[in-house]
């Protein structure tokens, strides 16, 4: 097994472990064990646990199906709904565990690691920007009140989604997710 | 110093440490050091770190100023706003750190400790119930559309608040808090 593939296995294992356990509960040992590599090999590829957490955030972003926000020939608000429906199914089908890695790191680590805070901020900013662009499209198409501030709504919807995932994990039910869809799509964006 | 006051100091230190550091980053040693008591004395009063975390959730709930939801002679929606304005000031004035202990435990621990998950669920349920009661009062007073489901709105507002705190900590700005007030009070409850 070459160096490059070991790095890939360690990076992917780190992402999975951080997502399942959180930052502080994940040891380097958990990561290398899950990757099936010797513990010492972690430091051949990452200078610190923090560095592997930054890469985990990038890997997580790739799972968020932003492509659903850009499906051709679908009205903007239907694309927005499809994006959150995908994320909802992922949570419901997995038994309401893990939540969002960006939000988890935000809750657990943002106060204590400036590097991780900044990476989480970039993740949220990029996500909110994508949501805001779809909302602006909806306004241009006449599907959304043109007087609304799409950036503010995008920021709020993303915050609400992050809290919804925590509430669903705590409640072990889809009630918070159902409330999110009802209020966002039937009240805020109606 | 008597037993009872040592217990109080340990319990209060545990709450402060969990709120500032999170569950996994807080060691028994951090708690007893902050309380100014010998490490071994922790186990004279608590059977486990988890047990002190359950008490921390109760102590946190007492800081949430639920009394602001019941101020006499103030319209229901103004009481709701005063409650969240108090919580917002607390976050802004503290430099966007710590967030909500219930949400933090939800994000970090709910998947891993059934006892803490259930306690966090009870905390959210009681909080949402109080918010829902104020919304029902607003409906009765004719200040809120009577066709809205107040329990669903309460659940959503609480989720949105939890996510807003995480976004504010990540952004180190009040922008997510401002978006919360604008969308909740000017759009959802208008």
UniProtKB/TrEMBL annotation, chains A, B:
DNA-binding interval(s): 27-46
Transmembrane intervals: none
Keywords, in A-Z order: DNA-binding, Transcription, Transcription regulation
Pfam families (alphabetical): TetR_C_13 (PF16925), TetR_N (PF00440)
InterPro entries: Homeodomain-like_sf, HTH_TetR, Tet_transcr_reg_TetR-rel_C_sf, TetR_C
Segments forming domain HTH tetR-type: 4-64
Protein name: TetR/AcrR family transcriptional regulator
Annotated organism of origin: Streptomyces nigra
Species classification: Bacteria, Bacillati, Actinomycetota, Actinomycetes, Kitasatosporales
């Amino acid at each position: 097994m070459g160096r490059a593939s070991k790095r890939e296995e360690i990076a992917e294992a780190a992402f999975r472990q951080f997502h399942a356990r959180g930052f502080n509960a994940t040891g380097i040992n958990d990561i290398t064990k899950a990757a099936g590599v010797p513990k010492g090999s972690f430091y051949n590829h990452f200078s610190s646990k923090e560095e592997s957490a930054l890469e985990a955030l990038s890997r997580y972003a790739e799972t968020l199906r932003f492509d659903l926000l850009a499906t051709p020939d679908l009205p903007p608000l239907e694309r927005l709904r499809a994006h959150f429906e995908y994320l909802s199914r992922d949570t419901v089908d997995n038994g309401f565990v893990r939540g969002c890695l960006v939000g988890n790191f935000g809750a657990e680590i943002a106060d204590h690691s400036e590097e991780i805070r900044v990476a989480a901020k970039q993740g949220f900013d990029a996500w909110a920007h994508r949501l805001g662009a779809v909302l602006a499209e909806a306004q241009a198409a006449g599907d959304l009140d043109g007087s609304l501030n799409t950036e503010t709504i995008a920021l709020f919807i993303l915050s609400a989604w992050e809290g919804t995932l925590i509430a669903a994990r705590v409640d072990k039910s889809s009630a918070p997710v159902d409330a999110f869809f009802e209020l966002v799509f039937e009240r805020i964006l109606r």
